Amino acid sequence: MEKLFGAWRLLQPRHLHTQTVLMVSLVLLLVLGLWGGWGGYQQHRSNLAHTESASRALARHIALASGNLILNDRLDALESLVIEFAEHPNVRLVQVLSAEGQVLTEIHQEPGRPAHANFERPRPSLPLPKEGQPLGRFSEDGSHFEAWSPIKSGPKIVGWVQVKSDLAELQSQRNLIWRNSLLVAALAIGLSAMLLGRLMHATMTLFDEAGRFAANLIDGEGQTLLQIKGPLEFQKLQKALNEASVLLQQHLLVLQDSIQTQQQHEAQLAAQNAQLGAIFALSPDGLITFDEAGRVQFANQAFLSLSRLRSEQVLGQTDRQLETLLLAQAAETEQPFPGLAACFGPVKQVLSLRGEKPLVLSFSGRESDSTAVKRVLYVCDVTQAHNLDRMKSEFLSLAAHELRTPLTSIYGFVELMVGREIPEAKRQNMLTRIHRQCKLMINILNELLDLARIEARGNSDFKFGMLDLAQVVDEILAEFKPPEGRERPKVEAANVPTQVCIDPQKMQQILLNTLSNAYKYSPDGGPVTLRFVRASKQVSDDESVQAQTFCGLEIRDQGIGLSAEHLARMGERFFRADTSGHIPGTGLNVSIVKELMELMGGRLQVESELGKGTCITLWFKC
User: Fold this and answer.
1) Same domain, 580 and 444
2) What residues form DSSP beta bridges with 157?
3) Long-range contacts: 182-187, Cβ < 8 Å, 24+?
4) Cis peptide leading into 122, omega within 30 of 0?
5) Has this prediction a pTM greater than 0.85?
6) Are residues 323 and 428 in the same domain?
7) pLDDT digit string, tens, across residues 559-610
8) Strand-strand pairing, 103-108 and 91-98
């Protein structure tokens, strides 16, 4: 019913005259339709009952008359008997069956044709009514009625009679009643519309005049213009409209001023909301707000990215539930995360998240007296600062350890020379050792300064240019002096294009550091070879993935090589593959090379096998 009223509201005409005619028409249609439908229904029920009674009676009469014929096996006489009975309106099929369901005779009657027997042989057995089942039923589609009657000889059933009556004619009669009812309804509706139109013409004329006046209720001076002659109700309407026309002008002026003020306020609020939305959306720091119930009501995109959570996981959660989601990603640290409640104190709290890219997040919160936003939680990514602090501590520890070794040696030798009388030959040996340790300290300090300059300046002081890498390498090797007793590096002729974008001065530092390591870590000799290679690699940017061509310089030695464990640590500061102390060095060469390569847009590739040497490839963008 609610859907019916909803459809009426959507289709309801806008004019009163049309609404009245439509309403009266619908009432007439409903009344006449119900009357016709009820009459048709009663007539149809009466016809069905008559057909059912006639079919049952016909089946019983055939059963009474065919008992002896079946017992005497007089099937021809049985067929003639059934044909006589089948000449009955609406009867379409009469079957006489044996007690086992075998068809003994079957008579068909089609509209407009006489009844005739069906002589198909053999005839399959048909299912018979079981005890307790009704002996008459309508088909599921309502097209016919089946009546059964047993053929008895005394108490024994010797056969069955089935009569099928067609109900199509009854349905046609019912449809005819419906059509006649609709025709009467249409005529009544048309006549009513004409009469209502005549009766409502004068009334609708007055309504049209009032409507036109209401559409232009106030003129420029607020004068009343409506003059209506008619019933008392229309006189009252005229007076009300005229009074409204005077007052409306006054209210209109006030309303216009209020609307203008409201529009200005809305524009200011929209601008402020747009600014706040842009700030929250573009801010790299996460922001969460909690309502009075302690549930998350807002979380900006930065927080979702930092926490690796989805919006539906966060919104509506309490601080305890949000804390559980964050702790599920937390990494093990020396100081466990104290919880979100502690973040609203005076001290910021730090949470480390594990993952492919570990993060360190700083949490700080503020409480508010506002009813809209009760608490605000700020989340900052302090991963870089945390890593810098850790690297600074590790660097200071390693630098102190590396500088302590030569200082201890120098201090020991100097203390011996000051406190004792030492022979000249031994004294010269000590001075030589002191000089070597001082030189080592100077090398460590110089390389530390190089790293400090690289970190401080980046590539701001690089002088890039498109140069021929093979030519640059030849110029550097022309001034290179290998260790005493070692062969010069062998350079294979370049058979690939070697134009790259590099800083030649930094390239010299990279190559000399790499060659120094190649000779130092092959103390038993063996050649050091250089070869130019070229390769392509898929590089992705913000919008697409493109193939980038790289030109590489391989430096291969036949030295002691690296184990898999040592190979994984290549590039760490102060890391040295030889811990025996027989091979001099600071452990910073590879770190410097790696930093410079990355600043030039290249990369360092190290391949090595213990006891079989090392191959370092310097890859540069073409």
Assistant:
1) no
2) 152
3) 182/33, 182/36, 184/32, 184/36, 185/28, 185/29, 185/32, 185/33, 185/36
4) yes
5) no
6) no
7) 888 877 777 777 676 666 655 555 665 667 788 888 888 888 888 888 988 8
8) antiparallel
